[in-house]
Amino acid sequence: MKSILKIFTVVVFMLFLCGYVDLREGANTGSKMMLARRTIAGIIDQNARNLNKLQDGMTRPEVLEIMTNKPLTAYQSGEQINITNPSRTEILRGKEKSVEVLYYMTQSYGGDYSVIDQNLTPIVFENNKLIGIGWGFLDDIIKKYEIERK
Predict the structure, then answer these.
(1) Where do the structural domains in the chain lie, given as residue ranges?
(2) CA quadruple 63, 42, 5, 32: dihedral positive or negative?
(3) What's the predicted TM-score (pTM) here?
(4) What percent helix, strand, coil does the chain show, rounded to 5?
């Protein structure tokens, strides 16, 4: 039993040093409480998993409830980083129709967490209804609605 406790203590200590675990005073209990820290990679992974829960025809509020529409705090190398979720939004106007696009970070190439197109997945709405997801879909809509991108 003592050896299991020692192993557990060493693992928690190592995770604490790596920035994955934060030990803070419990708000009401006064005791130490272990809280998992959110990493940028964890947020990216969660966004990617949440995409699978979306269905065409969902309303914008339904999508935002699944994907979140609030700043998130993550930790990278022990440093606190605030992340906007979605990372970017835009309205694309065509000759007769327009769409709203929410871009969520769903991947990182080579550990690069920059807000660049290759790290983002577009979620496309028309009249506040989800009509599609992904770059291929967005490219088709841009052509179909004759949207000029700047």
Answers:
(1) 1-37, 38-144
(2) negative
(3) 0.74
(4) 35, 35, 35
